[in-house]
Amino acid sequence: MANVSRDPILLTPGPLTTALSTKVAMLRDWGSWDSAFNAITARVRERLLDIVAGSATHVCVPMQGSGTFSVEAAVNTLVPRDGHMLVLVNGAYGKRLAKLTQMMGRRVSTFETPEDVQTTAGDVERLLAADASITHVGLVHLETSTGILNPLQGIAEAVARQGRRLIVDAMSSFGAIAIDAQAMPFDALIAASGKCIEGPPGMGFVIARKSSLEAAAGNASSLSLDLCDQWQYMEKTTQWRYTPPTHVVAAFAAALDTFDAEGGQPARLARYTKNYEALVGGMRELGFRAFLDPSIQAPVIVTFHAPADPRYTFREFYDRVRDKGFILYPGKLTQVETFRVGCIGAIGPEEMRSAVNAVRDTLSEMHVTRVAPAVPARAAA
Ligand SMILES: *Cc1c(COP(=O)(O)O)cnc(C)c1O
After folding, report:
1. Is any atom of ligand 1 closer than 6 Å to the C-beta of 256?
2. What is the CA radius of gyration of the chain?
3. Domain ranges in the chain with CATH number 3.40.640.10
4. Taking CA atoms, which of 58, 88, 141, 259 is between 20 and 30 Å from 156?
5. pLDDT for 133-152, tens place per residue?
6. Which fold has domain 21-260?
7. At the top level of CATH, which class does the domain 264-380 belong to?
C-alpha cells in the first residue's frame, strides 16, 4: 500500500499508520450541532453494529477518549454497584480491567493464567459454578500486551450457560477477528477508533445489549462516563452529550469506507495474516524467536524475545530502526525481555519485509550476532 508521506511507519497497535483518505478526512471542521455531522455519527454507529451482527439485540454507544475511557464507561454503567465481576487475566490489559473495576467500587475477583496461556471456557465454567455471587465476567479478547487470542466463543457460551453477563474488551480484535453478537452472547463489547478499523485515536465505542443498557440507568458513579446517559441523549438529540472529537469521527467514517471497500473483516484478517507471515518468517530467518506458540497467536501484534547478545539494548535498537522509517513497540512483560511489532494499519507485506530489512541492517550496525534469546525454547508439545 502506498505510504505517500515520509512519516515513519507505525508498527504499533494504535495509534497506527492510517490511509491517506483517512488523514484527508480530518481537514474539515464540523459543527457539533450540525445535522451533517450528526448523520456521520449515526452512520458510524450503525456500521460498527453491523460488523458484529448486533443490530437486532445491541446498540452502539460511542464515547470520547481513548479505549480505556469506554471500558470504564461500560463497567461503570453496566455492572451494578453491588455487582461482582470476575476478571480473566493473562496480561496487562486484563490487569487494567480489574483495577478500573475495583477503583469504581465494584467487587472484583481475578483468575490469572500465565501470559502465554489462554483462559479456557472450562476455567470459566468451573469458577462460575463455584461462586454464585459473581454477576459479570470481564474478558480481554486479544491481550495486546503479548498478542494472545482468548477463546471468546467458548467463554461467552459458558457465561451464558451459567446465567451471568459478559463484558469483552475487544479493543485490538474488533474488525480483524470475526465476532458475532448472536453466536457469542455478551452484554458489552468495547473497541476504539485507532485499532483494526485503522482510524485515528480519540474515540471508543461500546456495543451494548439494549435491554441491559436500559436496565442500567442510575448505576453509573461518573457523570462523563455514564454510558446510559450518553446513549439516551444521543437517541433523543442525535448529538453527542459533550463536545465530540469531530475530526476523529469524520476520519473514522472514512476509515470504515476503506474497511468496506477492502471487503470487511475477512479481508482485513487476510491482509493482517499476510503481514504477520512476512514479519515472522523474516524475523525467524534473522534468528528471532516469537514469545507465543503460533496456535494461540493472533496476527495483530507479535512479541519477540530480545537477542541474548550483550551488545543489544532496546533503546539503541529502537532508535536505529526508527531512523530507517519504522516505529517498534517496547515489550510489556515483567519476566523476560521482549519487544513487540504490530501487523495492523494501512500497510501490507511489502512494508513488513522492509521493516525486517531495517531490523537486519540495525543488528549488523550494532554488531549483534547472537540473535536467539537467552531463555530456553518451549518444550515441543
Ligand atoms: C489499546 C487497548 C486498550 C485501550 O488502551 P488506550 O490506551 O486507552 O487506548 C484496552 N485494551 C486493549 C486490549 C487494547 O489493545
Report:
1. no
2. 21
3. 21-260
4. 259
5. 999 999 999 999 999 999 99
6. Aspartate Aminotransferase; domain 2 (3.40.640)
7. alpha beta
Q: Is the CB of 68 under 6 A from ligand 1?
A: yes
Q: Which atom of ligand 1 is nearest to the CA of 141?
A: 13
205 lines ligand 1 (CB under 6 A): no
Residue 67 in contact with ligand 1 by CB distance below 6 A? yes
- Could you tell me the pTM of the whole model? 0.96
Per-residue pLDDT at 3 exceeds 90:
no
> What percent of the chain is modeled with pLDDT above 90?
94
> Three-state SS across the chain?
CCCCCCCCEECCCCCCCCCHHHHHHHHCCCCCCCHHHHHHHHHHHHHHHHHCCCCCCEEEEEEECCHHHHHHHHHHHHCCCCCEEEEEECCHHHHHHHHHHHHCCCEEEEEECCCCCCCCHHHHHHHHHHCCCCCEEEEECEECCCCEECCHHHHHHHHHHCCCEEEEECCCCECCECCCCCCCCCCEEEEECCCCCCCCCCEEEEEEEHHHHHHCCCCCCCCCCCHHHHHHHHHHHCCCCCCCCHHHHHHHHHHHHHHHHHCHHHHHHHHHHHHHHHHHHHHHHHCCCECCCHHHECCCEEEEECCCCCCCCHHHHHHHHHHCCEECEECCCCCCCEEEEECCCCCCHHHHHHHHHHHHHHHHHCCCCCCCCCCCCCCCC
Q: Which residue has a Cα nearest atom 4 of ligand 1?
A: 67
* Spacing, Cα 68 to ligand 1 middle (Å): 6
Out of 63, 66, 303, give the residue to mutate to test ligand 1, the one with the largest number of ligand atoms within 8 Å of its CB. 66
- Give 221's contacts (C-beta < 8 A, 6+ positions apart): 76, 81, 104, 105
Tell me how far apart the alpha carbons of residues 237 and 32 are, in angstroms, rounded to a whole number: 11
